[in-house]
TrEMBL record:
InterPro entries: Glutathione-S-Trfase_C_sf (IPR036282), Glutathione_S-Trfase (IPR040079), Glutathione_S-Trfase_N (IPR004045), Thioredoxin-like_sf (IPR036249). This is Glutathione S-transferase. It comes from Ottowia oryzae. GO terms for molecular function: glutathione transferase activity; maleylacetoacetate isomerase activity. It comes from the Bacteria. It holds the Pfam family GST_C_2. The lineage of its organism: Bacteria, Pseudomonadati, Pseudomonadota, Betaproteobacteria, Burkholderiales. The keyword Transferase applies. GO terms for biological process: glutathione metabolic process; L-phenylalanine catabolic process. The keyword Transferase applies. Keywords: Transferase. Residues 2-88 form the GST N-terminal domain.
Length: 229
């Protein structure tokens, strides 16, 4: 049985991607939660000590398959695509696969303003903070404009309901962005709002959201806008 090491569902956008991908595609795995603690001098020693026993980089997610450990979300996604070719985790057609890899790589390496200013926090609803962030951060506005244009183009080209028609790695990768747009109520078009709603309603995503809401955790260094729940 595969094992997937993850952080708190409420906060860990990186963990969400492979968990949702595997759950939505019916890939069986055992979940191993390594909860975030409150950092001392910028380091969460208990978390690092636990996860480094599996992943020397000291980060989640990490996928363990027998004696093999795979870390980094993109590496995990590619490994799963190789192990389960019949599930078509990438789009079936070569041009669409190339495009999907491009937009996934763009997410993997970019959109730093949105990710830093609007951290994933599924349980919270922060529209007032979202309005201030939107007003004061041109980088966030630029990131959301790029994401909105990308999603709109892909949905039109492939006919929806997901970015490349059927659910794929690309949708799993952008699921945490959907969570951020919801939490901070950032202004986006109706097309984007509808896609966010469809993603949130996917069984795999809904299961992650339900898990996040059930955690009842509060990790101070992941909460720049609140002092408690």
């Amino acid at each position: 049985m595969l094992k997937l090491y993850i952080g708190n569902k409420n906060y860990s956008s990186w963990s969400m991607r492979p968990w949702v991908l595997m759950t939505q595609k019916g890939i069986a795995f055992d979940e191993v939660m390594v909860p975030f603690g409150n950092e001392v001098d910028g380091v969460d020693e208990a978390f690092k000590r636990t996860i480094r026993a599996v992943n020397p980089a000291g980060t989640v997610p990490a996928l363990v398959d027998g004696d093999l450990a795979v870390w980094d979300t993109l590496a995990i996604a590619e490994y799963l695509a190789e192990q389960y070719p019949e599930l078509h985790l990438w789009p079936r057609e070569a041009p669409a696969r190339a495009r999907a890899r491009s937009v996934v790589a763009e997410m993997h390496a970019g959109f730093t303003a949105l990710r830093s200013r609007c951290g994933m926090n599924i349980e919270a609803h922060l529209p007032e903070q979202g309005r201030i962030i939107w007003r004061d951060n041109p980088g966030v506005r630029a990131n959301v404009a790029r994401i909105s244009a990308m999603w709109t183009e892909l949905l039109a080209e492939h006919g929806g309901p997901m970015l490349f028609g059927d659910f794929s790695i690309a949708d799993a990768y952008y699921a945490p962005v959907c969570m951020r747009l919801r939490t901070f109520d950032l202004p986006v078009s109706q097309v984007v709002q509808d896609y966010v709603a469809r993603v949130a309603a996917l069984p795999g995503v809904k299961a992650w959201i339900d898990g996040a809401l059930a955690e009842r955790s509060f990790v101070a260094h992941d909460e720049p806008y609140r002092s408690g729940r």
